[in-house]
Amino acid sequence: MHHRKLSIALHLIVLSAFIGSAAEAKSTKADQAPPPPAVPVPQVDQAPLVPPGPDKVEGTAVVIDGDEIRIGDSTVRLYGIAAPDLTTRLGPAARVALDAKVNGQRTSCLIFGKTPDGDPVGQCKVGDADPAAALLTQGLAAVYRSGNANDTSQQALAQQYDAAEAIARQQGIGIWAKDPAPAAANQEAQTAADQRRKQRQFGQIVGIGGFALLILGVFSIPLTLAAIARRERKERARLRHARRFTLSSGMAAEAEIIRAAVHRNLEQIATLPADRPVPSAFGTMLGLPTATYWNANAERLSALPAEVTIPLLRLHALHEEAVRKLAIASAIPTGTVAGILGDLDSAAGRAIAAIEASLGLKRDPAEKASSAGS
Prior knowledge:
Blueprint: H1 2-31, E1 56-65, E2 68-71, E3 74-78, E4 81-82, H2 91-102, E5 106-114, E6 120-125, H3 131-137, E7 142-143, H4 152-171, H5 187-207, H6 211-269, H7 280-283, H8 292-297, H9 306-327, H10 334-358, H11 365-373
Parallel strand pairs: 3-6
Antiparallel strand pairs: 1-2, 1-5, 2-3, 4-7, 5-6
Helix pairs in contact: 2-6, 3-4, 5-6, 6-10, 9-10
């Protein structure tokens, strides 16, 4: 009996302690302040920042066309101007003019932005000379608005380029000439307009009533159709000639550029011993321009006659060989380098002569002598 009472007492003590602990925990939670509501995190949907490109590109420049050059791995678009495409009138002339000013020379470009393709756009200088302003003055480019109009340096360039273009406009030179030769690109539109006019004329003839006119029309229709066919053949022949003229002119211009570079290289090594390799100091100054126009239009050679394509193929095969030899000029005799350059010079001359002959052009003897000596 005594043990039973003791067991009941122990159970009551444990039960009392459990109830007291629960009450204390409940009161503690009731006394605490409720936690603050969670702050919603907004969705981040902004595009990441694009790292800025270089603000300056500098190095030896190679001309691509009238308003683009390549420096190292960067293709730089000249800021503030637009030159004619290579396949249009004055396109080759703009490239030749730009090549004479920057090709192979140390060029520094201050970058203002990028083209839609991601290429840098900037003002390029050779020393203190701005080739873009020179092209505008010669009428071989037009002012092209781009960039940040609020930038003070770009505002100053815009005023300078506007003044240069105004000079060319006043003189009526280059693309501002009053009576430019028709471009090949306009020939197709002209041909289509002629065909529509001929169709209207034919409809008017057929639409004239009367039995007598109908009989006359029956006899005249074959003659009319034959005349139309002859005219269309002439138009197609003229269009082919215009395309061939544009392609030939570009090839000839590039051959002249290569030939001028060959002459510069020959002058630089003229005093060196023929049986010894070209010194490294001279080797770094040797080089040839890339055949950009040839590479872009090689698949169109079928438009040219065989007497033109064969010299061109020979020229560019020798050009590739000469580029490889100049790269290792310090390891081969100077006489070998001079011989390769001489062969390339002769090939360029033959290609230019073949193009001029195919187009029926006759160069002035004084001009030939100047070209051979340059």
